[in-house]
Write a structure and sequence with these properties.
single chain, alpha+beta, two-stranded antiparallel ribbon, 3 helices
Length: about 80
């Protein structure tokens, strides 16, 4: 769990700070096209900056603490769990 940036612990401030830092560095822009069940396409743009940074930090931490076989198993099983 993320706990602080520069000693600040409040989760709301943490996300706000990550959004600001990510925005300054062009992190977290996602353009997507989705099809609705009715067949219509919708286009949108999201800016999940804090989520992008937290996810990247989590991946890096996993690479440091998980052994190779466990990390490989996670990569194989993760797409199946998302369904």
């Amino acid at each position: 769990m993320p706990v602080a940036i520069k000693g600040k612990i409040d989760p709301v401030r943490l996300v706000e700070t990550l959004n600001t830092l990510g925005g300054k560095h062009g992190i977290g822009r996602v353009d997507m096209v989705e099809k609705s069940p009715g067949g219509n396409e919708s286009r949108g743009s999201m800016k999940p900056r804090a989520q992008t940074l937290l996810y990247a930090a989590h991946r890096e931490l996993e690479a440091l603490v998980l052994d190779r076989d466990t990390l490989h198993a996670k990569m194989v099983l993760a797409p199946k769990w998302r369904r």
